Amino acid sequence: MEAEMSLLHEPLHEYTFKLPGPPPVLVPAITWCTQVDRELRLRDRPTDATANDPDLGFLKPVGLGSISDNGEYKEWEYQQRWEAQKILPWLSVGPVPAARDKKYLEREGITMMMAIRARPTPLQGVLRVGEELGIRMEAIDTPDHGSLIKAFPHTTQIINRHLADVWQSQAATPSPRLGHVLVFCDGGNDVSPAVVAAYLMEMLDGFDHIAAMQVCQSRRFCINFDETTKNTLRAHWDILQAKRAILGVQSDAGTAASHHGHQTVLPLREGTARHKRHIEEAAQDEDMDMDSGVDADDALRFLGRSNLPFAAT
């Protein structure tokens, strides 16, 4: 009996002073995804694109396959973690050893290498190989996840501008080739795949943070997004959705303006327009007898509604 009473008084959960964190972001395996056969399609225009950004129409004819299309998907070996894997025909991700592998860089036709560094570590070996092969080098320093999410739009613009420069430089040749960008970090398992996942979210049609991480992990099995990186990518997806919503509103407003002599016309309900009150009007409101009627502000705010908060009886 005493044992039963002691069990009743035992706490079910330990009390903690730790602040609550965001819920975990679950990324199911690609074989469990309901969109396994979904085709990868480029968006018509990146969200952060401006009038000065290059035209990426040359990427449209490139076949991207499906979300689960990967020739090396079923045969992953441990030593492949030290190699780079192709995510898109023009974009690969991997570790530092892959950026020093001269044979790999020549075989895959790498035209730019982008280092994602948590701290400004020297890259003499990578720089030496890059200079020998004439490969462009970029280094993005991301000491924390706050700087990482800020770098996402910048890294996407760098990649796209390089691809456009390579294409334009070969425009006069009979068969121009695409540029090929290798994004790498120390182990190639966290921050560089996060940059690639952000690029997929920006460039592919209807790809959220879950689908982007699934594609990266299906190509490179050793990728391990921690919870902070997952929440960073989820926050970036929310930012992209907000930007696209604003662009959609602006596009609709521009369409309406074109039908009204290039003058933006906003729909207003009759009687809702109000002018800025002068100080004399505000002083008169202070002396108003509350039993004589409805306040002017309330009358304007509730104009057109059937229920008024204060009405004379």
From TrEMBL:
Example of a GO cellular component annotation carried by this entry: cytoplasm
An example molecular function term from Gene Ontology annotations: F-box domain binding
Signal sequence residues: none
InterPro entries: Prot-tyrosine_phosphatase-like, STYX-Interacting_Phosphatase
GO annotation (BP), single: negative regulation of SCF-dependent proteasomal ubiquitin-dependent catabolic process
Record's protein name: Uncharacterized protein
